[in-house]
Design goal:
Structural class of chain B: alpha/beta
Largest sheet of chain B: 8 strands, mixed
Distance between the termini of chain A: 28 Å
Helix content of chain B: 10-25%
Strand content of chain A: under 5%
Number of strands of chain A: 0
Radius of gyration of chain A: 13 Å
Strand order of the largest sheet of chain B: 2-1-10-9-11-12-13-14
Shape of chain A: globular
Distance between the termini of chain B: 47 Å
Structural class of chain A: mainly alpha
Oligomer: heterodimer
Number of helices of chain B: 11
Strand content of chain B: 25-35%
Shape of chain B: globular
Largest sheet of chain A: none
Chain lengths: ~100, ~450
Amino acid sequence: MQETAIEVRPGGADHIRRTVAASFERTAIAQERQLAPLTDDLVLVDSGLDSLCFAIIVAQLEDELGLDPFSDLDDDLFPVNFAEFVQLYETAAQGQAA
Amino acid sequence: MPSLRARLIAACPPAGARLVAPGASLELAALAAGDGAGAELAGRSVLVRTATQLGAAQALVELDGRARRLVLCPPDLAAEHLPYVVGEAGVEAVVTDAPQRLPADLGLPVHSLRAPAGGADVVEPPGEAATEWLLFTSGTTGKPKLVIHRLAGLTGAIAAPPPSGEGGAGARRPVWATFYDIRRYGGLQVLLRALVGGCALALSEAAEPLADRLARFAALGVTHVTGTPSHWRLLLMHPQAGMIAPAYVRLSGEIADQAVLDRLRATFPDARIVHAYASTEAGVGFEVDDGLEGFPEHFVGGDGPVALKVVDGSLRIRSARAATGYAGPTALTDDEGFFDTDDMVELKDRRWRFVGRRSGVINVGGLKVHPEEVEAVINRHPAVRVCRVRARRSPITGSLVSAEVALDDPAQAGSPELEAALRDSIFELCRASLPPHKAPAMLRFVSDLQMTPGGKLERTNG
């Protein structure tokens, strides 16, 4: 049975970005947070989400994308803005495909 | 203290009163008469390893007051642990109803139970010794842990039966039924209630379908039924739950949350519904029958036969019904005689509520969550039959709260639209009742949740 009811078309150039954005939006609604517009330069700590929200997003993305790039991440590589967050998953996906 | 057999005889079990298992039964009067075998085991430490519950009941009646020790094996005790148990408890002989199932290399004399010879003269052994009853604690992994009880403590919570001939013609003896296995503490309590009260008792076997069990219970006219909240949740979901009409419903062994108490009340409107706090180590602590979860504030701090205190959030019990110690060097109680139950409680609105086991705490970013307090909220949802909350590892917060939910109507599962709507409504209920870190971050629908052999929700992390 699937974990979530979000609709994301598999494949496509921006599949990962759309999956990440959907998870941010869904989690913000669920946690009753005011989410800032998801622009590339949005600084994550200013996004309106707290660490619990990010923990939920990372778990959702692990279920949906099969990727868990945070588990092996050095602290100093932690993404700062939204683009870096998406990039982290895109890099992980490339590593998995390779 | 009279032996179990002496108390059974004193209860004058009426003709026909039996212990009833699926496909077999044992008359209480025959149990009282015995097979005369206990004499050869007098003064020894005896392992009771039976294939059937009826065999165990017979062995207990034979041995109490005669054996120095009896060690009651639960049905799922692995044979590989037997040498350790034999050493730990100084076992000198084995009583069994299935000698062919014993490991060949135990190196102990084996006594095979014979059918009790009903009607034989009963000769009480002279100078009854207080037999030590060694019981296995539940929920342990690895090497089993044994605690030491005596019959007086084990029966300490059982009200004395009315003297024979009193109570009028309308005062009928209870007919007990249990979902527990009598070879564990919870089931043993029911067996002892039946024996010292001279009452019939219907037993459960896991292999028997619930529908057959309900039909059997109904045919026997059961009046007093006992099980864990998990057992009861399963029964409440059964279309034929109404086949039985117990006057007395008892829950113990797990937290009885408000949802299960309310459902029992709705299904058995005339029953006395009691949830008891008991454990193999602490014995029967107390009983609550006001229909509310938790227990009244004033239970803690008194100095009666069962004294309770709360230290560092966990419930501590000092009781004559508790075990007197572990079989081994570990101390069971603190210097004042209090046993730490590791059950965490919180006081709110003048009521103590169980929030979970100390060892089960989920740490979400440094904040503690007890799975059971989240489960109690989810179980309040009308579409939910049972749920289990567990930790999910998180690289951000260490752990997250994750829930698995089995629905009342299994047909609802599998439909994405229905599941999405139900998920939203369960999340909404949790967010309204719990702080954000306690509300489940993930929720998955499952067809069923496993129970342990002891009838508790399986909590092994998978």
